[in-house]
Amino acid sequence: MISVWMRFWKLSSGERRYFFMGALFLPVAIVSLRMFNFRSVQQSLEKGYVDVTRMDTRNDAAIFAEVQTASRMVDAASRHGLVRGNCLSKSMVLWWLLRCQGIPVQLRLGARKTGDEFEAHAWVELDGRVANDSEDVRTRYSPFKDAVTDEMAAQK
User: Fold this and answer.
1) 13-35 and 87-100 are packed helices; what angle lies between their axes, rounded to 10 degrees?
2) Residue 52's closest CA among 81, 114, 8, 95?
3) Residue 122, SS3 per DSSP
4) Which end of the chain has the smaller Cβ count within 10 Å, N or C?
5) What is the pTM of this model?
């Protein structure tokens, strides 16, 4: 336990912030997704972030490094926080946190059928680069044609 705390305090302030935000919002996302449908939850989250047309002015490498840092910390919050999130709750929290920072990430959904089982998966991308999964996620799951956009969520 002590080594976990020692590792935590060695994190940068930005990493600790993403961890705490992940730990705070993962339970909210999990409960919300159980109580309401996906579109309702996404629409509620969209009301809480800045317009991503005011995009981050850092170079692409710095922005993607920020995305990867946030992804690692949301994943750590899921492992060490109050609840363990699934791919959808973790991806929604990551997507929202980054959009709040003005980073125009996309929430992606995909599916596959293994035998008689249908499986769905969620992940986050920035300009087609996978942020919180392995790069081969598109070969393991057939992505829906488009990223989940504000307009898609608004459709009935």
Assistant:
1) 130
2) 95
3) strand
4) C
5) 0.82
Alpha helices, H only, 36-136:
38-46, 60-80, 87-100
- Per-residue model confidence as pLDDT tens digits over 106-148: 999 999 988 899 999 999 999 889 999 999 998 899 888 765 6
Amino acid at 93: V
- In the beta sheet, which residues pair with residue 121? 110
Say how many C-beta atoms besides its own lie within 10 A of residue 7's C-beta: 10
- Residue percentage of the chain with pLDDT more than 70: 83
Q: For helices 13-35 and 38-46, give the axis angle rounded to 10 degrees.
A: 140
- The first and second tokens of residue 10, run together, are 């060695």
CA–CA distances in Å: residue 65 to residues 15, 71, 133: 12, 10, 14
**Is there a contact between 70 and 98 (Cβ–Cβ < 8 Å)?**
yes
The total number of residues written for the chain in this structure: 156
Backbone angles phi, psi at 104, to 5 degrees: -80, 65
71 token code pair: 């992804």
Please tell me the distance from the alpha carbon of residue 90 to that of residue 11, in angstroms, as a whole number: 20
